[in-house]
Specification:
Length: 113
């Protein structure tokens, strides 16, 4: 059974950076496509980025150019590097394996203006 644990969130000023981590266990991580989503209060969950098993990456238009998704298969971990953060980036960030109906608990990112 897949388990996902996110970390790395926190409070950051606008323009700052954070790197989020998603540690996976219970499945063959290297074969999974890994997604990051975020959900701000009162809004629907929003897709942020994906990295597939071949390290091909996809980004939402809202973060393209400011975020980088990566993975370390030896550590069973996916990452989301976020730069030039904006107050609109305040949300609970969650990772998910594509096609697997399980969500981690998420990590809170708060961007102050």
């Amino acid at each position: 059974q897949l388990q996902l644990v996110e970390s790395g969130g926190g409070l950051v000023q606008a323009g700052g950076s954070l790197r989020l981590s998603c540690a996976a266990s219970g499945r063959t991580f290297s074969s999974l496509s890994m997604d990051w989503y975020r959900q701000a209060p009162g809004t629907e969950r929003e897709f942020v980025a994906r990295i597939n098993s071949g390290n091909y990456t996809y980004y939402s238009n809202s973060v393209k150019g400011r975020c980088t998704i990566s993975r370390d298969n030896a550590k069973n971990t996916a990452y989301l590097q976020m730069n030039s953060l904006k107050p609109g980036g305040t949300a609970l960030y969650c990772c998910k394996a594509a096609g697997v109906d399980f969500w981690g608990q998420g990590t809170q990112v708060t961007v102050s203006s």
